[in-house]
Structure formats: structure tokens, C-alpha cells
Amino acid sequence: MEFFLDTASIDEINRYKELGLVDGVTTNPQLLSKEGRDPLEQVREIAAIVSGPISVEVTHTDPQRMVEQARGLARVAENTVIKVPASMVGLTVARRLKEEGIKTNITLVFHPSQAVPFIRMGAEFISLFVGRVEDFGLDNREHIRRIRSMIDEMKSPTRLLAASIRNPDYLVAAVTDGAHAVTMPPVCWEKVYNNPLFNQAELEFLESWRKLPPRVREGYESIALDREVAQNAS
Question: Looking at the DSSP assignment, which residues form a beta bridge with residue 5?
Fold first, then answer.
């Protein structure tokens, strides 16, 4: 399982890279526009600090212009992967890019049927949007297992990327149901580690501990310092 970060922010990438949570990065036009910089320079900078795949998306809708833009984006850095929509037009574009050896990430997949021809051709990634359907009262987490099963059944090199992860349950589903990789925005990692049950339990433990007189706590709390002093003395 690989963990990608869904952002175009250099600061966020550096922060989560230090935590070991950036095997790659996924961007889209909306994320790049938020940074307010030249998008190409932003992508180059991301690719310079992340060795794994960097997904960048085409912004044209005409097939020929999509292919031309994809060729240019593929030259920005060796680790760029081109995001192509899971549509009939996207299928045409992905086939041409495959013939040219350009890696693709098929995006905006909401149902396994969309993924079938792309899996068959061996696209590098299929991005199943897990969380966005929640806005419409739907739940498509079961599609993670179904698409992974399709990939295995067709013996395809395609890798399933669980995308649009919005909460900890979606993260767990991605891991347990067979996704090869998951991409999460920083805000979702913040949710994972801002669990109210954890926060309350930690607070209770510390409050109980601080009820002890300082002289009683001193030895326990300064044990590391005592060891360092002893080592320096020797």
C-alpha cells in the first residue's frame, strides 16, 4: 500500500513527507489554482522533492489537444503521470498515450464499469472516487473490492488508487478492500489524528498524572535527562 498526498502545496508536501506519508502526489486543476503560482513551476517543484508518481491533469476537452497537452506535461518531469477522465473521450486519449509510452491515471471513476476498458489496456492507475458520492447520500466503498477483483481477474498491471478520501473509515476501507494506493488530502490526516475519543482519553491521563506532587513525578519525568547526564559524565 502506497500513500499519496492530494495537494499541490509545497509546505504540506514537505510536512507529510517528514512523516513518511508521501510516496507520491496527486494534483488537479483546482488544487494547482489554489497555490496562485505558475502551475508548471509548481509541478516541477513538487517533482523535485517527491520521487514517486506526480499526477497532473489535462484541462482540454478536445481529444487532440488533450493528447498534445499530455505530451507536454509528461516532459515536465520523469515522474509525472497524466490524469485522463474516465469517459469515451478519455478512452481515446488514453489509448494514444499508451501507444506513446506515456503513463496515465484514469480519474473520475465512480463505477467499476467505467474502469473496465482502461484496466484491459493496462493504464497505470485507476482513481476510484470514494468520498465525493457521499454528497449525494451514496456509498461506493464496495467498488474498491470489485475493481481490485477485476484487475486481478484480467491479470492487468493497472493499480487501483482510492481517491477522494474524506474520513478515516474510507482510509480503512481502502487498505482492507485491496486498493494498491490511497491518496488523501492533508485535512483528512488531520481528522485521523484529531479523534475526540483519543483527545479526551489523553487529557484524562495527563490530568490524573499532574495530580501527583511534583517531587513524586520528578524521577519518572527526568529519567532521560538523568541518563544523558550520566553518559556525559562517563
Answer: 25, 184
The residue ranges of every structural domain in the chain are 2-192, 196-233
On the 0-12 / 13-18 / 19+ scale of CB atoms within 10 A, 82 is: buried
CATH superfamily, with its number, for domain 2-192: Aldolase class I (3.20.20.70)
User: 128 pLDDT exceeds 90?
Assistant: yes
Q: Which of 83, 98, 155, 191 is catalytic?
A: 83
155 is catalytic: no
Residue for grid cell 472516487? 129
CA 92 → CA 69, 82, 87, 170, 195, distances in Å? 14, 14, 9, 31, 44
pTM for the predicted model, two decimal places: 0.89
pLDDT tens sequence across 17-54 = 999 999 999 999 999 999 999 999 999 999 999 999 99
